[in-house]
């Protein structure tokens, strides 16, 4: 599909395509043309021109999402392109903007907005290299530190020290970039480029380092907090986090996997859980909550009832919810506002079919994303599922990997899915009849790939043909056996793997030591 370009945009492309010509004449360009030239340069991957545009940016703000989003001159949205060449040029250009002596008293730039860059699996840029969230955090921190060193060592125009530019960014901190980020945050008062963390993700960090980073940031600006892999945030530390640090604007909270287990709760743990629920209730902006792989049986009401704002996103996958939990969700004020819901890992057809469909009917008018992986959905449940999904006319994404559905049932379901007007992404399971007879569900990881691949390909073609015949080429259908693409995990997979090996080694050493003592 070709997106139309205005004559202005075509002219901008012609201007920036000759790098040497463009760089020499930027000083004569009208200020209101800078956004147009920036998007044209980004599309053509003209890194040097991007660098010079940012260095001499004449406007009050630089919002990369708006600059690359749909415009009257060029409707295509480029904000999902995390091209290494372009983003590196943007960030280094910001540093040069501060040091540009020629226009130090003419500088207007006050806000640089780099947040909400969406990292996607397939990049359409020519270089095919991405700069993910971790790398953006790393480079910005490095540039801030270099800038401070330069200002301390080199003679600069006095006006340079009065420059203050707020850089809004989604930070991603791991053990590997911790020192650099910590230094940049510690000294940000003295740096012209002020890192303002709007979203924060932490992986593979000790608690001491996690709390240090959190306390260095202005948490009053924080809108999204993700504590994901290998941050050992036990109950007492969760309580400490919410009691000692305030998050007045927090809209999205992700807590580490397997950090709640009500089966082992003491009376003190129960009190702490109530306290955490109360503290979340004080977060009046909170609309997204993710607590996967925690055992929360019978405690959903205790956690969610204090919330004063209805949730729009809820992930309670593999949380061992019981009928009381599902009944609370179905009857709560959250139900009518849920736009994204993940109930994976629950035996919905056997445990609470009517309550689940009640919940689905309440959120049907707003639901955009539904994930029901490993939910024991079988052929006999498909008609009921279709009935429940029929009112969900705004559904854009439906994921149901890991359910024991036959090829025939999938074809029946796909015929219905074609009728959902906004659907664009479906993740479906390998048909049950592609696996050997006697295969039990949920299928263990070691057996996931042991199916008839040729038969699967034939079925997948038939399912895509159903979409094609219904003129639904816009729907992407796939079977990601080991989960959907995760840009963050992809970017830091080596570090995550090394951390897991280290943890396994330490556990083995402790076991060996204990065994030797017993002997």
Automatic annotation (TrEMBL):
SUPFAM superfamilies registered for this protein in UniProt: RNI-like
Domain of life of the source: Eukaryota
Family: Belongs to the PRAME family. LRRC14 subfamily.
Entry keyword Ion transport: no
The keyword Transport is annotated on this UniProt entry: no
Family annotation (InterPro entries): LRR_dom_sf (IPR032675), LRRC14/PRAME (IPR050694)
Record-linked Gene3D superfamilies: Ribonuclease Inhibitor (3.80.10.10)
UniProt protein name: Leucine-rich repeat-containing protein 14B
Species, as recorded: Elachura formosa
Any one of the GO CC terms: cytoplasm
Signal sequence bounds: none
């Amino acid at each position: 599909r070709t997106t139309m370009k205005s004559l202005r945009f075509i002219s901008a492309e012609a201007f920036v395509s000759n790098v040497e010509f463009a760089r020499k004449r930027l000083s004569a360009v009208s200020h209101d043309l800078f956004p147009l030239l920036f998007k044209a340069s980004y599309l053509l991957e003209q890194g040097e021109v991007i660098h010079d545009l940012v260095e001499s940016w004449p406007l009050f703000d630089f919002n990369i999402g708006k600059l690359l989003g749909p415009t009257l001159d060029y409707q295509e949205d480029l904000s999902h392109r995390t091209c290494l060449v372009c983003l590196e040029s943007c960030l280094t250009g910001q540093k040069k903007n501060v040091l540009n002596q020629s226009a130090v008293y003419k500088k207007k730039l006050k806000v640089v907005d780099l947040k909400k860059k969406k990292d996607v699996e397939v990049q359409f840029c020519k270089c095919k290299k991405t700069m993910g969230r971790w790398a953006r955090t790393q480079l910005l921190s490095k540039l801030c530190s270099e800038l401070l060193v330069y200002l301390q060592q080199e003679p600069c125009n006095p006006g340079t020290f009065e420059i203050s530019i707020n850089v809004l960014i989604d930070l991603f901190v791991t053990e590997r970039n911790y020192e650099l980020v910590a230094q940049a945050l510690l000294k940000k008062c003295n740096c012209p480029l002020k890192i303002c963390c709007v979203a924060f993700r932490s992986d593979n960090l000790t608690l001491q380092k996690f709390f240090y980073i959190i306390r260095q940031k202005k948490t009053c600006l924080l809108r999204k907090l993700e504590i994901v892999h290998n941050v050992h945030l036990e109950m007492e530390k969760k309580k400490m986090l919410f009691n000692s640090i305030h998050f007045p604007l927090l809209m999205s909270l992700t807590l580490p996997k397997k950090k709640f287990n009500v089966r082992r709760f003491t009376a003190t743990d129960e009190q702490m859980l109530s306290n955490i629920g109360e503290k979340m209730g004080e977060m009046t902006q909170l609309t997204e909550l993710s607590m996967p792989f925690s055992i929360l049986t019978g405690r959903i009401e205790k956690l969610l009832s204090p919330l004063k704002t209805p949730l729009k996103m809820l992930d309670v996958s593999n949380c061992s919810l019981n009928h009381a939990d599902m009944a609370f969700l179905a009857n709560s004020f959250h139900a009518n506002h849920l736009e994204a819901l993940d109930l994976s890992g629950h035996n919905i057809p056997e445990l609470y079919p009517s309550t689940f469909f009640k919940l689905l009917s309440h959120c049907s008018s707003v639901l955009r994303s539904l994930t029901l992986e490993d939910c024991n959905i079988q052929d006999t449940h498909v008609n009921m599922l279709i009935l429940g999904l029929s009112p969900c006319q705004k559904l854009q994404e439906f994921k149901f990997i890991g359910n024991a559905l036959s090829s025939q049932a999938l074809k029946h379901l796909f015929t219905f899915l074609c009728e959902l007007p906004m659907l664009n992404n479906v993740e479906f399971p390998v048909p049950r009849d592609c696996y050997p007879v006697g295969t039990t569900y949920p299928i263990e990881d070691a057996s996931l790939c042991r199916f008839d691949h040729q038969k699967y390909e034939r079925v997948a073609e038939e399912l895509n043909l159903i979409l094609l015949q219904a003129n639904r080429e816009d729907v992407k259908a796939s079977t990601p056996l080991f989960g959907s693409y995760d840009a963050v995990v992809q970017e830091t997979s080596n570090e995550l793997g090394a951390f897991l090996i280290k943890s396994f080694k330490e556990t083995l050493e402790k076991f060996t030591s204990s065994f030797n003592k017993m002997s």
